């Protein structure tokens, strides 16, 4: 309707790079540390994370909080009411829509230059490299066809993969005698 364009960006290897992150020591860690060293850790104690935290249950949430802070504080975008990873704001006087999925981004506005400037500004605050994906053709498993007349969102590739995996596209496929209802 607005004839906007969407570009993508990916913070490659983001979990291996470290931002200044802190975690509150939980009960299981305090118990483990007490058994190991016979010393107690005070409840509410905070530790700085010095190494990659990929695999830690808190890692995605901490990365999300870090990125959300950049998007809201530095860029001034506000999350929508119903979808906290979808933001809206203005950049150089132009309306911008911004989608964040962990470390994948999509920036949507009326011209590619503004999209690229938004990505460049985010890049300044990240320690992980931010890979430009250009005009979005696929975002988190969803295929996107963009033309100057329309944007089509679909999952054709995924559907074909499922149909092929189960043999449903082959002429030799035999339907079961007693099919289980879907």
Question: Can you walk me through this structure?
Answer:
There is one protein chain. The protein is 28% helix and 30% strand. The chain is an alpha+beta fold and 182 residues long. The chain has a domain at 21-51. The two termini are 36 Å apart. The model has no long low-confidence stretch (mean pLDDT 84).
Which spans have pLDDT < 50 for at least 5 consecutive residues? none
Q: What portion of residues is helical?
A: 25-40%
Find the structural class using helix and strand composition: alpha+beta
Count up the helices. 4
Distance between the termini: 36 Å
SSE sequence, one letter per element: EEHEHEEEEHEEEEH
Percentage of residues in DSSP E strands: 25-35%
Query: Quick check: average pLDDT?
Result: 84
Characterize the main sheet: 6 strands, antiparallel
Q: Care to count the β-strands?
A: 11
* Shape summary: flat
Radius of gyration: 22 Å
Order the strands across the largest sheet as they lie in space: 4-5-6-7-1-8
> What is the multimeric organization of the chains shown?
single chain
Short précis:
The chain has helices spanning 27-37, 59-74, 112-125, 156-165, and strands at residues 5-11, 21-24, 46-49, 78-79, 86-91, 94-101, 104-109, 130-135, 138-139, 142-146, 151-154. It has 182 residues and is an alpha+beta fold. Strands 4-5-6-7-1-8 form a six-stranded antiparallel beta sheet, with helices on one face.
Key phrases:
alpha+beta, 4 helices
Blueprint of the fold:
Layout lengths: L4 E7 L9 E4 L2 H11 L8 E4 L9 H16 L3 E2 L6 E6 L2 E8 L2 E6 L2 H14 L4 E6 L2 E2 L2 E5 L4 E4 L1 H10 L17
Antiparallel strand pairs: 1-7, 1-8, 2-3, 4-5, 5-6, 6-7, 9-10, 10-11
